[in-house]
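Before a colleague's protein record goes any further, I have to sign it off. I want your independent view on whether this chain really folds as the tokens say. The record follows directly below this note.
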Amino acid sequence: MEFPGEFKYTKDHEWVSIDNGVAVVGITEFAQGELGDIVFIEIETGGETLEKDEVFGTIEAVKTVSDMFMPVSGEITEVNPKLEDTPDIVNKDPYGDGWMIKIKMSDPSQADGLLSAGQYKELVES
């Protein structure tokens, strides 16, 4: 299983890539594998400012429906337009084309509380 070292991770199985105060968020390869075939993703929070740990959307798979949580506080500036027509892109490319949202971070120091790739790997393998 792959956990790119340049990303940060949450205990809720999301990855975060940060560049110039903008966080790109998706779910990890582990999460998409646990969910199974993803059939629908609902994110209606585009343009909203949410706090860390608030629900920003839901992801529906054949097996279950799961909430997705904000890894950091900020304004959701973009929702991946590919998710509406091809939600299974998350199964195929969770760290690339399967990203979920972009957040203009309101408190960049919150990123310091996220997990490293090594810490996340320990979490899912324990």
